[in-house]
Amino acid sequence: MARILITGAGGSAAFNFRDALSLAATDYVVVGTDVKRYHLELMELSAKYLVPPVSDSGYVDAINRVIEDERVDFVHPQPDVEVGFLAEHRDKIQAPVFLPDAAAVALCHDKMAFNAHLSAAGVPVPAAVKIDSQDDLHTALAELLERNPRVWLRAIRGAGSRASLPVNSFYQGDAWIDYWRSFRGLDYGDFMASEYLPGAEFAWQSLWHRGRLVTSQARERIEYIFGNLTPSGQSSSPSVARTVNRADVNHAGEAAVRAVSAEPHGVYCVDMKCTAADAPMVTEINVGRFFTTSNFFAHAGLNMPDMYVQLGLGNALAETPPRYDPLPADLYWVRMIDMGYRLIREGEWSSTVR
Predict the structure, then answer these.
(1) Domain count, the chain
(2) Domain limit, last residue, from 195, 215, 244
């Protein structure tokens, strides 16, 4: 029985990854680490460990002690900071990982550099400007407000729509950056402004092995967890999502991955937002780790976390799904804090209209 270590196991993305593994035909022994003890209590794990953050010189030794004590066969890092560290220092870890090359991970973690790289490669991306100064903000607004009455201002690094806000004036943008400078340690140089895209938002989850696309599936984010309470009106974590099968989304997702990796290997989760004309534009790649709701597709019959672990262990897949659109369209995943989750097919809603 394979023994799996999940890092960042106190997070909801790790929880859902663990949930997907529990659906697999293969039994796993799963242990977890986190830098905080609180939410580890919510995870069903064979063992739980507190470790220092990756910025601590003792991180590698702590992870390797867990690997040795628990006889770990495979390590899955879920938080971006651990993905980045382990991609660069995988030779120091005493168990296999299944991660993209370190250069691809570093590129994807810098959203401005990523945008420029994809644009140069001919992949559709929103127009974007790095904001190093107030003058840059003035220039970006003058250019981007010609495209849409709003501009998307966000931090260059970080997940969960970090420091994101739609703005339509210099006053708003400068005040937003001032807030983050005063309270959160970000400043000019840490932000980018991009074309505001008013269309649908898609999340394309894909699994690759030594340059070959194993399988992929897209979903549309319809509503967001507490999106009504955030300044931007959204987050990257949906409360309602549905499967979609669109050739243009598949094409954009695959093109984006091939643009950042000469030989894609591991998990690449591509975010896209559509223009007013419904053309998908790639906004970022969550590289080396799964989207938060990886268990959505697993409950629908496409268990990509299980396939990822099997390939990471060096095993051949028992069955290989189609490369594109293995699930039917219009499967809905509905979830909410303290309420759990449910998979619903279009036409099978339990509510009655009056």
Answers:
(1) 3
(2) 195
